[in-house]
Amino acid sequence: MRANDQVVLITGGGSGIGLEIAKVFLANRNRVIISGRNLSKLEAVKQEYPSIHIEQSDVTSEEDVKTLVKKLETEFGGIDVLVNNAGIMNLVNAGDEGNDLHSQFQEIEINFHAPIRMLHHFLPQLKKSKQAVLINVSSGLAYVPFAQAPAYSGTKSALHFWTQSIRPQLKPHAIKVVELLPPVVDTKLAKDADLQDDTLKPMAPEKLAAIFWKEYTRGKEEITPGISLALKLMSRVAPRFIFKQLNKQPIPQS
Ligand SMILES: NC(=O)c1ccc[n+]([C@@H]2O[C@H](COP(=O)([O-])OP(=O)(O)OC[C@H]3O[C@@H](n4cnc5c(N)ncnc54)[C@H](OP(=O)(O)O)[C@@H]3O)[C@@H](O)[C@H]2O)c1
Description:
The chain is α/β, with parallel strands linked by helices and 254 residues long.
C-alpha cells in the first residue's frame, strides 16, 4: 500500500481515532484534510499541526458533501484516500418507549448512510487516482453485538458487510478497500458511553494508530487491533459465549 504523497480526507478527523490516523498520514508526507462539524475543534488542531487542512463539513448533509467534493477537486485535484471515520454511539434501552428515537436515526445517518454518501460523491476522484484507497472505520462490535448500544451495533455490522460487498466491486476500478475495526479506544466517544468493564479495557488512540499504520502499509484489508481479533474469532467458534462475556453490564436507562 502506498504510504506517501497521497491526498487523504479523514471525516471526523478533529478528535480521537480520526486525529491519530491523520497524524500518521501527516508524519509520512501525505497531504491531509480533516473534516467535522465543530469548526473551533478543527481550528485547535490546525494551530498544533499547521500543515493539516481543515474543512467544516457534516457527513449527513448532501449539500456539505457536494461542496467539499468541489473544493477538494479545485484545491488538491481530488483525493486519493477517503477515510470514513466520523461516528457516534448512543446507549439506548430499546425496551423503553421513552427512548430517544431521533438520536438513534442520527446514529444510522452518521455511521452507515454517510460512508455510502461519501463514497458515492468522491467516486470520480477516487477513480481518477492512481492508487486510491477507501478506509472504513467500523468496530470490533461489528463481530459481536453490544446490547447497551443496539443501533450502534447494527450500524457497525452493516458497515462491515457493506465494506466486504463493495471490495470486489471497486477492485476493477483500482480502488482498494480497507476496514479498521477498533477495540474500545480511549476517546470522547468511549468516555461519554462510560464503558467501564474489564473485558473492554480501552486502548490508547496513539497505539491504535500505530497498529493501523503497520498493518495498512503491509496491505492488510481487515485490521483488527487488540480484542477485536478475539471478537472476530470467538464470534465464529463460540458466539453465545462471547456475546455473554461482552454483555455483562446492566441495560442502560433511557
Ligand atoms: N472509541 C472507541 O472505543 C471506538 C471503538 C470502535 C470504533 N470506533 C469508531 O471510531 C470512529 C471515531 O470515533 P472516536 O472514538 O474517535 O470518537 P470521537 O473522538 O468522538 O470522534 C468522532 C468524530 O466524528 C465527528 N463527527 C460526528 N458526527 C459527524 C458528522 N455528522 N459529520 C462530520 N463529523 C462528525 C466528530 O466531530 P464533530 O462533532 O466536530 O462533528 C468527531 O471528531 C467512529 O466511527 C467510532 O464508531 C470507536
